[in-house]
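User: When convenient, might I ask for sequence and structure tokens for a protein?

AI:
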Amino acid sequence: MPGVAKSALQGDLSMPTEWKAVGEVDNLFVFPVKSLAHVEVENFNTGPFAAETGCMVVDRQFMVVDKKDKLTTSRKFPSMSLIQPEVTQTHLTLKYPGCKEFDVFGDLCKGFDLGPEVGEWLSDVILNDPEGGMRLLYHPKVDSTRPDKPTNEEIAPNMKPGDKPYFADTFAYMMMSQPSIDELNKLLGEEDVDLVVEEKRFRPNIFINGEFPAFAEDEWAFIKVGEVIFRNSRACDRCVFTTVDPFMGDKHPQGEPLKTLRKYRCAEDPAEKKAFGSAPLFGVFLAVEKCGNIKVGDKVCIGKH
């Protein structure tokens, strides 16, 4: 069965001194509330722990937990992906089809728990039970409280201990490309799967396009977007979230495209196979080396060889 022979970056991992353009940014996305719908933006600032589009609008700065303080996501409740957040510098508004919108307002830095009212609204939407015990938590815009990452030269030689996010699963940024999406759609067709996917299903922050092969981004140690420099921390391992339709809020009945990704994009290297198991690799996690602002249309460059 075909797969990814080796996802860990190889060769010279030093910062490039010369760059060449390979494409441009097609779309930028932030996800203010973890596991809820995306917000498409024209630009964002690249903070060390998350994309920032204002003094409060930070990627995955909010998350939903249940009455046992466990993270709640669309993996279990796919309809969460239809809850649309709208964020200003003073308000977070949550909207869901058929429900009255809910405003969260106030001095959020007073605490992590944003109160019972929004918890009841989320419980009603997600569980159909206002007393279900859901709560919305907030991470202040300070240093991430997540622990440093253990180094692993075999799996992620380009990763640093400080490559951590706020409430995102593993890293602050994730990038995907149109050629890789196109190749997945080709594979889905070859497998007789009646499904065409697009980037929103995979929840990238940065979506790029260009005249380069599918999965070429896997091998780029550093990526320059505009004047911002990102470091490729490691490949992105995928889960059941890929089966959630971002427009319908339900899971694919045959578990696609995850099933096809597992056939073609699982690790073959023994150490990586042990680390990632049956999780296929699709997209790359990034960390910021040089902060700044990136925007739709920015050139995407990689190091000259």
In short: The chain has four helices and 16 strands. Residues 178-190 form the longest helix (13 residues).
